[in-house]
Amino acid sequence: MKTYNVGVLVGSLRKESFNKKVANLLVEVAPKNINFEFIEIGNLPLFDEDLDQGNPPQSWANLREKVTNLDAFLFVTPEYNRSVPAALKNALDIASRPWGQNVWSGKPAAVVSVSIGAIGGFGANHHLRQTLAFLNMPTMAQPEAYVGNAMSIFDENGKLINEESKEFYVNFMQAFAHHIDVNTEK
Questions:
Q1: How many CB atoms sit inside 10 A of residue 128's CB?
Q2: Cα(88)–Cα(42) distance, rounded to whole angstroms?
Q3: One pLDDT digit (tens) per residue for the chain, 186 residues
């Protein structure tokens, strides 16, 4: 069984983010042949093409190098105004530039949206999928993951309350492992 190195990008920057809790849970229940690296996106200067001329910020170069060296990506995002948070979109823009040097291209991805609302970040999930399609990232279609009412699924220590829902997360990560396997070069 091949081992894969997967980057995890969490759109919420909040310290006690439900998105971070879900991301940690997904990593915990994932198949053992996947190694995960959480990628910090909150410290990235906003993308400005003028800054990319000659000597881009070191944080941009570091992100591009990480993306280049990873096999796939798990995106866990909240929904802000029916879209993804600016920090997540900024990271996507930075690593897809300069034009013609998109380091996301061909890397398999999965999207999980997490919301305190009942519809589970549906808008953000699909908006992110549009961006990933343009970036040429084969994105797992099924199972879809919209985590609604996120404030009710964890206890005060960040542990999953509903063990029955754990099966969904296990199945999601098994499907993602399969998606990575069929969408990476052998």
A1: 25
A2: 8
A3: 799 999 999 999 999 999 999 999 999 999 999 999 999 999 999 999 998 888 899 999 999 999 999 999 999 999 999 999 999 999 999 999 999 999 999 999 999 999 998 888 999 999 999 999 999 999 999 999 999 998 888 888 888 888 778 999 999 999 999 999 999 975
